[in-house]
Structure formats: C-alpha cells, structure tokens
Write a structure and sequence with these properties.
This protein is mainly alpha-helical and 183 residues long. The chain has one domain: VKOR domain (de novo design (two linked rop proteins), Up-down Bundle). The protein contains six helices and two strands; from the N terminus they run ααββαααα. Helix 1 runs antiparallel to helix 3 and helix 5 packs antiparallel against helix 6.
Amino acid sequence: MRPLRWQPATTLVLTVFGLGVATYLTITHFDTHVSLSCPAGGGFINCEKVTTSPQSYVFGIPVAVLGLAFFVPMLLLCTPMAWRAGRRWVHWARLALSISGVGMIIYLISAELFIIKSLCMWCTSVHVVTFFLFVIIAPATPYALAAAGTWDGGAQDPDGGNDADGSRAGPVSTGAHRADDPA
C-alpha cells in the first residue's frame, strides 16, 4: 500500500474549516455584540433558536466550546507530520476523537430535529465536517498504523519482534498468515 497522500491534506483543511466555524460560534455565544449570520425568523432554519436552546449546553458547557475542544486537538492530529508519526497512539487518538465527534453530532442532530425542531446552518456545517473527518480517518487508520511500524513507534516489540514460533515477522504484522505458519 502506498503512503497516504490526500488524507492528511484533506483532513487538515476540513479541521481548519471546522475550527473556524467553532470559533465563530463560540464568539457569538459569549459576545452579545456579535450576532449569528443566519436567519432568525420563525422558520426551520433558525440558528438563534438552536444556539440559545437548553440543548446548546452539555453538562453546563456550551456546545460551541466543546466544538473548540474537539477541533483544537484534531488540528494537531491531522497535520501531515501527525499522519506520518511513528507513534501509534497518535493514530489511535485521531480515530477515537473522530468517533467521539460522530457520537456528539448524532446527539446534536437528534436534538435539533426532534427537540428544538430547528436547524442551525453553522452547526450543520460543523456536523458535516465532523462526519467527513470520520469517513476519511476511519478507513485510513489501519494504513497509518501499519506505516507507523513497531507497536510503540520505535522501540522493539516486548518479545524481541519474534512470533510465537520464534520466527521474525518484521516491523509490522499484517495479520495475514505466512506459508510456514502452522496456524
């Protein structure tokens, strides 16, 4: 498998966009002099209704701030350098964060549709970005992990890199059985 090419750049662009929108939503949440650029009428698209609803807080924390808390580490984890990282925890952290982001957007979209009965265009753009991040990161993670090499990013496997039969499998085990493997 060739090294990942488009995933790092695409996830970085998506994350920068998401961070920008999350920053804008956070500013409009805390600064009453800045209003959302979104229809505020009584229609289905109503950012003000969504962002001022009780569902705009989770455990007392504004959802906009949670967006920042998602996109700041995601920005670091989606840099090209992080995609090439030899530390496997970086790739696992990126995957875990994207999964938690999708979980959060499922809750938020459900709240918008069934409780608030309105949608926020800005919030929806963050939901779309988060979904696409997951769609790109989830299938790319096994390849990123394989490229990361040994289990902890540089140190030898605890058993010296040997398989159970004493043969050396190399820096990355693909999970495929070798011809000389009795299993």
